[in-house]
Amino acid sequence: MKHVTIILAGFVSLLLSLYLVSNYEGVYLQRPLWLTLVPVMLVGAWFSMVQLTILADNVTSKLAERFIGVMVPALFAFVLLVLWQLTVTGFSVPKVLLPAPSTILTTFVTHIDVLSKDFAQTWLKAVLVGWIIGCASGFIVALLIDGSPFLQKGFLPVGNIMSSIPIVGIAPIMVMWFGFDWQSKAAVVVIMTFFPMLVNTLAGLQARDSLHLDVLQTYACKRHQVLWYVQLPAALPFIFNALKVNSTLALIGAIVAEFFGTPIVGMGFRISTEVGRMNMDMVWATILVAALAGSISYGALALLESKLTFWHPSRRSK
Amino acid sequence: MKRLTHPLSIDSLKNSQPAALLLVLIALTILWYLAAFWLNSDLLIKGYERRGMTWDVSRLISDAYSMKRPLLPTPDQIGYELYKSIFETKISSKRSLVYHSGITLSSTLLGFLLGAFLGIVLAIGIVHSRTLERSLMPWVITSQTIPILAIAPMIIVVLGAMNFTGILPKAIISMYLSFFPVTIGMVKGLRAPDTLHMELLATYSASPEQTFRKLRWPSAMPYLFASLKIAIAASLVGAIVGELPTGAQGGLGSRLLSGSYYGQTIQIWSALVVAAILGSVLVALVGYFEKRVNRRMGITG
Amino acid sequence: TLTCSALAASMSQAADPLTLQLKWVTQAQFAGYYVALEKGFYEDEDLDMTIKPGGPDIAPPQVIAGGGADVIVEWMPAALASREKGLPLVNIGQIFNKSGMMLTCLKSSGIEKPMDVKDKTLGVWFFGNEYPFLAWMSKMAIATDGSEGGVTVLKQGFNVDPIFQGQADCVSTMVYNEYGQVLDGGLMPSELTVFSYQEQGVAMLEDGLYTTEDKLKDSAMVDKLARFLKASVKGWEWVANNPEEAAEIVLEYDDTGAQTLEHQVRMAKAVAKLIEGNSKGVGYLDPAAYDRTVEVLMSGDSSPVITTKPSGAWTHDIYEKSGL
Amino acid sequence: MSMTADVFEKSDVLAEFNPPQSARKMITIEDLSLVFETNDGPVNALSHIDLAIEEGGFVSFIGPSGCGKTTLLRVIADLERPTSGTILVDGTSPEDARLNRLYGYVFQAPALFPWRTIASNCKVPLEIFGLSKELQQQKTDKYLELVGLQDFHNKFPWQLSGGMQQRASIARALSFEPQLLLMDEPFGALDEITRDHLNLELLKIWHETGKTVVFVTHSIPEAVLLSTHIVVMSPRPGRIAKIIKSPLAKKRTLADRESPEFVAVMQEVREALANDHRID
Amino acid sequence: MSMTADVFEKSDVLAEFNPPQSARKMITIEDLSLVFETNDGPVNALSHIDLAIEEGGFVSFIGPSGCGKTTLLRVIADLERPTSGTILVDGTSPEDARLNRLYGYVFQAPALFPWRTIASNCKVPLEIFGLSKELQQQKTDKYLELVGLQDFHNKFPWQLSGGMQQRASIARALSFEPQLLLMDEPFGALDEITRDHLNLELLKIWHETGKTVVFVTHSIPEAVLLSTHIVVMSPRPGRIAKIIKSPLAKKRTLADRESPEFVAVMQEVREALANDHRID
Ligand SMILES: Nc1ncnc2c1ncn2[C@@H]1O[C@H](COP(=O)(O)OP(=O)(O)OP(=O)(O)O)[C@@H](O)[C@H]1O
Ligand SMILES: Nc1ncnc2c1ncn2[C@@H]1O[C@H](COP(=O)(O)OP(=O)(O)OP(=O)(O)O)[C@@H](O)[C@H]1O
Ligand SMILES: [Mg+2]
Ligand SMILES: [Mg+2]
């Protein structure tokens, strides 16, 4: 029962710091004795996390493991938030610079209608459509290029150049071409997500075992069969890498693109407008939405990946 | 295996890199001119009609290819602008694109180095500590969902208040964008070793550090280079994003911004072209190191 | 600017350092400060000035809150909004007497008078610059949510392209900048209908100088600011008399190398008109204009920018101390 | 040494051996050499090989480790290109033979796909050749049973022992019933009894279907038991030291191993091997 | 190379067998079972194994493919955890034995690092154990020569034949001269002569250094030639069918294979194997 004690100790130290935050706003940092409680809290929280991890790895029930598995990052986030709150309130950081987490949360809840409209505009339209088209085209181009040395030699350098074009540069042009609505944002996302997919898929397609290729060659396989039977399975881990990296890149791209002209809805619009209005709490609430959406889509992809690449050494060794 | 990827080897011309590249470039140029005409003429016709002017096709064509602020400038307009701002201007001049590329490049490289380093360190931590994996990994991912342009000004303000100006704030934004692909790729790569190889080292009771040096690191190489290529491109984007808020301090980003601000499409496009060239040179550079490392590891072709 | 100020610092050890954060990139909109720097007016006042240019996402109040500047150039609405958010900004001198912002519309879209904008698409700047527009619409009782009989609002980028590409019927312009771009783009003044917010009675005070309350409690700082205001105003007066040379000076300080002389000269001339007409000269905040701004800001029906009447948001102390 | 290229021409001892159609050559190799270029200088893997294999023959390659057996098999399978010399497989180039899906190849390592179950691994060639689903299932069942893996259909390769993986890969090569079987130490990782069993099964298949088999092995008794001809190779550079024709009848049983002919052939092979043996 | 197989000066009497110190147990296994959980239900890989191996013993595991030999070896090496039962290696847990670098393991597959040359592959354990550069070079030279790869120092693994790769992996396991050798079919891919040579070398090393060897093989003659004890295993669930103690002297020559004791032991093993054989 050693770890339970340690976990409890960690929680107690966290609660203590919370108590300080809520009751001695602004003054406690001037008292050195209380200040030392902060590292105590950090160490306590760390031990809690270590013990929770061990617990999660040894627990037999799947449900319990899931639960504890969520607890650890939650605890980590909680510590960060407490530190954030401590700093903001303790040092009286102006609200126009950095609002406290509690303020952000309140704003999030009270403005949920505006935020959900923005989310629909930016994520459901621009990000999703752009991500799908961008990943699909990167993937297809990788397939074409991998199969044909001619295309590889002709297109790879050009493709490289075109995909090194920074988003911030293309965003205004896309607005020019595709208008103010989400289509131009989706176009930016397409261009942003294309390259990571291309590079990763190519690397993956080339990561096949040469013995496996020999096997297929003895069957006089067509190229598409080689792809299907060996290259694609071997490339899956790489492809998922790209899908995951892209799921975050896409959101950034769409939001950045909205800085260059939009209808008056959308997460990027909200951020830049509210910064101008000094409503930093609203800005951070939007960031919170972005973080939630990004994390959830990433998590979903990771889940799918573990289902599809169960055979890969990186999964089997665990 | 070799023959599988050489279905076209009969035709030697088709296999020559310059020929292939040239063909693609010519095709693209033609497409570009067509697109420029299509986009620009639309604009022109609107203008003609608004003013009730009479116009014919030859006038339209010559106007479409010589607009001062076209919707899509033609390659020759961009080429001329590039020539002017690269060769006809002193490198140290603020009107030289070389000067601005230099500014962007320095923060890109600094950010890339910091990002690659941070990314690798995080990956090592995550691979070796279950606690770090469980606690840190989700937040590494979440960090990337925060739109960089939203926090870039804050970073610059905060660092500026701490008297860090110049390339460091921009490099930090580059780092923020570039560490992520490295972390994700390396976590995967460091876990990629063959089970049998891991067991072999277990029989030697090799320390984690030895396992890392002798097995994990070499097997992560393909993943490392794939992510470094993405990271360096992301780093360039970060440097340029970082140049927007500090828009007046030079760099390709500020050229883009001021071009956009004053509607100077030709200026935007030439900055874009330079950025793209810079990006692909950087990616090619990573590719060059990849080849060298591969050769040392006995992987040919 | 970095190297300039560093150099200046090493040359005159004794001079008092002071940092100014601009609202936007280096251009003739801020010619007065650059002239004062270039011509040594600040040096004469024993000031070691650093001028930080802004950009699209630099909010000067954030910079001053973070300690990155001593004084900022900001518009009144943003300054008052920050004040309500707990950053006590105080106007210490008003530079622009008139608003330069206006809505530029195409006659071909059938817009001749204000009410004609109904059912049209309008490009508007946000980032704190949208208040005059919203106030104007609310004054005319036109909805801004794109509904029937209202207007469709686009967040306009940094240029006036939407009017050329037919994406908007009207775009926001500054008289000293974008309006010129509209003309450059091939539109004749005769093809355009221009609504100046100044004339529509919804104008707000634009470029002014702001600092925080705590800085004003420090008498040494007050003294520095007074000297700063004096030198800046001297710079502005110089600009009004020599717009062409002022433009050249601005160009010197532009690190992007993207500005053109022609453009900056035009801007300098237009800006010179905006600083004119103040009863007590450049730098004096007219309380009546302030009251009008506050009134407009509080009038927004659905979401007013500020909810309570601010107090102590301006002071004439610095102006008086500067001996202008 | 005389490089009697034509190993089948004057085969006369046994009536059952040398059926009429066997005059046709399945594989003809003339003056074939192969050099690998490595970072460390060239390696002469094969040097001046002459060999002819008749249709319906069962030819074993035997020789010290590293003498070029695998390389020669790979040349026949069009997995390596010879540096010089000519080779015909079924009257065409190895490439055409491969494209015609003439042969099945059992690699020295199992080479199973980790992302597929055993049964699904076996189906790979069948899917590629476009067999119907029922036929696929039928063949897979048949050959997995033959190699004794009937209970392991749904396991993944890494859940099998080394020998079981090798058997799965044999089943995969047999499943599409190719005309020519190229087998690289297929039974190397198997115990004696399993090996005997599979030897008999292979003989039965060979005998019933008239396939041509080219077989690499390290076991002298196995080579003698199975083959019509035993090709003894020797290393550095890899070449053919001797070709030994088996006097055994085509129908063989395990009991043949006790026969004096059998022992005599074994002795002959052993001597040929020892003659020129170097370890490398 | 001369194949006069007698590596020991004199073939001695039985007295030398069973030296006094051999009372000490190197490995003690009691009622050990291991179940693999798979997508397809549990697999009983080992069931109720009891076994004791004395220090200085040479014990072979023999049994049909898939009977659990590799699994048992992996349990000894602490690469698998038993589901139940106890096991002691050198008086400690397998984990401590592994952490003490007590044993060298030769895997069933070569498991060489593709990015390292052969010599550099051999040096991996030596680098890990922190030997000086000269010592590393010396050991590598010695053992690569022993397995006949002296000319292949600078080749990469994929430039070697299957048998050569396996020999490289043997050299790697021998190079750091561990107390206990765990070898999983080390000579499976080798020709008879190379195999005989390496058998003798292994016997010599064993004899000279008093190592304990646990050895998996499919070759009955090899098992009998090398071992002091032969453990015959049988499958589903994997268990020990019989343990046969060899009456042969500790010093052995290839010629012993002709002796009547040898043939008798071979027969005993063969019977034990056939007794309970099923293919899977
Ligand atoms: N990782 C695993 N997961 C599931 N089952 C396994 C795993 N490893 C081995 N097995 C099963 O355990 C049994 C014993 O396997 P093991 O590898 O020990 O056999 P073996 O005696 O070494 O056979 P061989 O002589 O063919 O190498 C087999 O039925 C095999 O399918
Ligand atoms: N890809 C390659 N590159 C360079 N050398 C090679 C390559 N493949 C094989 N060799 C060399 O060619 C020679 C013959 O190899 P091969 O694999 O044909 O031997 P083998 O007779 O099959 O041996 P074994 O019985 O050990 O499998 C060896 O010396 C080997 O080092
Ligand atoms: Mg071989
Ligand atoms: Mg085994």
UniProtKB/TrEMBL annotation, chain A:
Listed InterPro entries: MetI-like, MetI-like_sf
Domain ABC transmembrane type-1: start-end pairs: 138-308
Name listed for the protein in its UniProt record: NitT/TauT family transport system permease protein
Xref: PANTHER family: ABC TRANSPORTER PERMEASE PROTEIN, ALKANE SULFONATE ABC TRANSPORTER-RELATED, MEMBRANE SUBUNIT
Key words of the record: Cell membrane, Membrane, Transmembrane, Transmembrane helix, Transport
Any single Pfam family the record assigns to this protein: BPD_transp_1
Gene Ontology cellular component list: plasma membrane
Its membrane topology: Multi-pass membrane protein
Subcellular location: Cell membrane
Biological process per Gene Ontology, one example term: transmembrane transport
TM ranges: 33-55, 67-86, 123-145, 157-180, 186-205, 226-243, 249-271, 283-304
Major location category of this protein: membrane
Entries under Gene3D superfamilies matching the protein: MetI-like
Organism: Marinomonas balearica
UniProtKB/TrEMBL annotation, chain B:
Alphabetical list of Pfam families matching this protein: BPD_transp_1
Bilayer topology term: Multi-pass membrane protein
Highest rank taxon of the organism: Bacteria
Transmembrane segment boundaries: 20-39, 103-127, 139-161, 167-187, 223-246, 266-289
Main subcellular localisation: membrane
Alphabetical UniProt keywords: Cell membrane, Membrane, Transmembrane, Transmembrane helix, Transport
Domain ABC transmembrane type-1: 97-290
Annotated compartments: Cell membrane
Gene3D superfamilies documented for this protein: MetI-like
Tagged with keyword Cell membrane: yes
Keyword hit for Ligase: no
Homology family: Belongs to the binding-protein-dependent transport system permease family.
Protein name, as recorded: NitT/TauT family transport system permease protein
Automatic annotation (TrEMBL), chains D, E:
Listed SUPFAM superfamilies: P-loop containing nucleoside triphosphate hydrolases
Record carries keyword Repeat: no
MF annotations from Gene Ontology: ATP binding; ATP hydrolysis activity
InterPro entries reported for this sequence: AAA+_ATPase (IPR003593), ABC_transporter-like_ATP-bd (IPR003439), ABC_transporter-like_CS (IPR017871), ABC_transporter_ATP-bind (IPR050166), P-loop_NTPase (IPR027417)
Coiled-coil spans in chain: none
Protein keywords: ATP-binding, Nucleotide-binding, Transport
UniProt keyword Transmembrane helix present: no
Listed Pfam families: ABC_tran (PF00005)
Ranges for domain ABC transporter: 27-260
Family, as annotated: Belongs to the ABC transporter superfamily.
PANTHER family tied to this protein: ALIPHATIC SULFONATES IMPORT ATP-BINDING PROTEIN SSUB, TAURINE IMPORT ATP-BINDING PROTEIN-RELATED
Record protein name field: NitT/TauT family transport system ATP-binding protein
